[in-house]
User: Fold these one by one.
Assistant:
Number 1:
Amino acid sequence: MRCRAVSNKPSEKTVAVVGTGTMGTGIAIVAARGGAKTIVFDVDGSRAHAAIEQMGRFLRRSVELGRTTNEAGVETLRRTAATSSIQDLAEADLIIEAVFEDIQTKADLFKSLDEVIRPDAIIASNTSTLSITQLASASRHPNRVVGLHFCLPAQLMKLVEVTPGLLTDDSVVQRAEDICTALGQIPVRTKDTPGFILNRFVIPINNHAIRLVEKGVALPDDIDRAIRGALRFPMGPLQLVDLVGLDTQLRLCEAFYSVTHDPRHDCPPLLRQMVAAGHLGKKSGQGFYRYTSTGTFGA
C-alpha cells in the first residue's frame, strides 16, 4: 500500500484524503504538513502515488523559496501514505472527500465508507455546491457528516468553511473545527447553503471580470492589476479563474445558478466558448493568460 513509512505516534490524528486532483493533493499537503498521519486514497493506485510525488515537488519548491526547511519537508512526506484499498481508511479519524463534484459519485463513496470506517470517524466533504444534508443522506451515519470546504490552492490558503448538515452532531462539528485548527487552518462555520460564504462573493466577482473581457472594457492583465492594486486582492480574478480552471468556474456557475437563479451566477458566454476551445487555464497552458508550466505543484 504505502510508498513511505508512516509515523505511529499515538498523539497524531490520522486524516484520509479521497481524491487526488489539485484540491485533494493540496488538502493532503495541509494535513501532513500540519502533523497528521495522512493517507491519500484513489481507486487507481498510480494516481495516489502521483499525488504524493506532486506533494514532494511542492515541498521541494517551498524549501527553495525559504518557506520551510528540508527537514520539515522530509517529515511531511514521512507522514504520508498512498493506497488504492478503501480498507486502509479504517484507521482514519477524519476522511475528507475531494472527488468529482457529482452527487451520485459522492453518495456512492459515502456508502462505501460506511463499510470500513471506525464508529467515531468523521466524514467530511470538500464540496462548495452540493448540500451537506443531501450528501449525508447517502450515509448510514448522517450525524457524522460535515462540510469542510478548503480554498484553492489549499496548501496556500488558510480558510476552511465548516458546514453542518441538519443531522450533524454538534460534537462532530466541534471536532472537525479543532482538527482544522490543529492543522494550522482557520475554520469558519457556515449554514448549509449553496456557495457558503466565499463562493457567494468569488463566483460573481470572477464572472464580472470575465464579462469585462467579453465586452472589451479592458485586457485581462489590466483588470487583474486594477483589482490587486485598488482592492488589495493577492491575486486578480482572472488569474484565479486560470488557477482554479475555467471548466471548474463553469461547473460552479451552473450549479449555483440552477439553485439560486441569481443572474450574477449565470455563466458568461465567453467562459463557455473558452472551455469548448480547451482553454482551461493553467492546467491546459492557455486561459486568460498563457503558461509554459501547467503543473500547480511544479517547481
Note: The two ends are 27 Å apart (CA to CA).
Number 2:
Amino acid sequence: MSDLLDEVLARGIVPVVVVRDAARAAGLADALVAGNLPVAEVTLRTAAAPEAIATMAKNPDLLVGAGTVLTPDQVDLAVDAGARFLVSPGLSPATVARANERGVPIVPGTVTPSDVMAALASGLTTLKFFPASNYGGAGTLKAFASVFSAARFVPTGGVSAGNLGDYLSLPNVPAVGGSWMVPADVVDAGDFATIEQLSAEAVAAASVV
C-alpha cells in the first residue's frame, strides 16, 4: 500500500477537490490528467462526492481517493465508490482499522506529538498535518523532523502557491494537499481549461523546490 501512496505523492501536490455536481467529475478528471497532476482527493463533504469518485475512478490515468473520511461507514462508502486511498482530518482507530480491513491506505490527520506517536504505534508513517496553518505550519514540521524520523507529512490547510516551497523544502514533506488549482467555483462552472492550467503551474512550481 505504501507504493500506492508514493504514486499519489509523486507530483508533490495532492489536489483536494470539492465536487458539488457529479456531472463535472469526468471533465475534472480529464483536466487534472492533462495538467500533469493525475491524482485527486475528493472530499466527502457533498452529496455528490460518491458519484463523483465513481466517475473519476473510471479514468485509467487518474488516482482517485476520498478525503474527510471520518467513520468506518464512510470508509466503505468511499471504497465501494472506487476510492483507492483515504484521507482523514484526524486519527480514528476504528476508521483506520476499517481501512486496513478493506486493504486501502489511509492518511490520518495529526497535529500534536501525541497524535504522531499514536499513528506510528498503529503502523502508519504517512500522515496528514491539518490544519497546517493553524498549528505552526512549516516550523512545526521542521521540529517534528528531528523527533519523528519515521514519519512523513502531507500538510493541508492554508497551503498555497505562495508558501508551497516552505513545506516542500522540508525533508519530511513529500507532498502538500491544496485546492488552489481546483477552486470550487471553477469546478462548479466546468472551466476545465483553467483547472488544467492551474494544475500544470502547480506541478511546475513544486518541481523546482
Note: The chain has a mean pLDDT of 97.
